[in-house]
């Protein structure tokens, strides 16, 4: 289970899904927006937790104790940013 403390909405879920699909070692995963985590099954001979965390942080999200890539985070849709970083109030 990977903690996703900055996940906000279904757009976030879609972005993280896209990132995780880049790793052929990941067998399956389930992202829980409300629970702010992802349960990930992976082939340990093809990938590892740090690579998976790197994919998520490169997509602009925190993963466990790893911080998101600042540039990727800035490029996220407003609804995917933390409320304090949003340009305008959104209804998501």
Account of the 3D structure:
The protein has 92 residues and is an alpha+beta fold. It contains three helices and three strands. It has helices at residues 10-20, 49-58, 70-74, and strands spanning 2-3, 26-32, 37-42. The protein has a three-stranded antiparallel beta sheet, with helices on one face. The radius of gyration is 13 Å and the shape is globular. The chain starts with a strand and ends in an 18-residue tail after the last helix.
Brief overview, please?
The chain is built from 3 helices and 3 strands, in the order βαββαα. The chain is α+β, with helices and mostly antiparallel strands and 92 residues long.
Secondary-structure element string: EHEEHH
**End-to-end span in angstroms?**
25 Å
Question: What's the mean pLDDT score?
Answer: 95
E-strand count = 3
> Beta-strand percentage?
15-25%
**Largest sheet, described in full?**
3 strands, antiparallel
The proportion of residues forming helix, as a percent range, comes to 25-40%
Derived from helix and strand composition plus strand pairing, the structural class reads alpha+beta
Which sequence of strands runs across the widest sheet? 1-3-2
Rg estimate, integer Å: 13 Å
């Amino acid at each position: 289970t990977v903690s996703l403390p900055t996940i906000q909405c279904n757009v976030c879920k879609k972005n993280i899904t896209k990132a995780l699909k880049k790793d052929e070692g990941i067998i399956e995963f389930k992202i829980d927006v409300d629970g702010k985590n992802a349960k990930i099954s992976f082939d340990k001979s093809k990938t590892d937790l740090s690579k998976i965390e790197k994919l998520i942080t490169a997509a602009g999200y925190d993963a466990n104790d790893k911080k998101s890539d600042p540039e990727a985070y800035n490029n996220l849709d407003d609804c995917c940013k933390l409320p304090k970083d949003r340009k305008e109030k959104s209804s998501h």
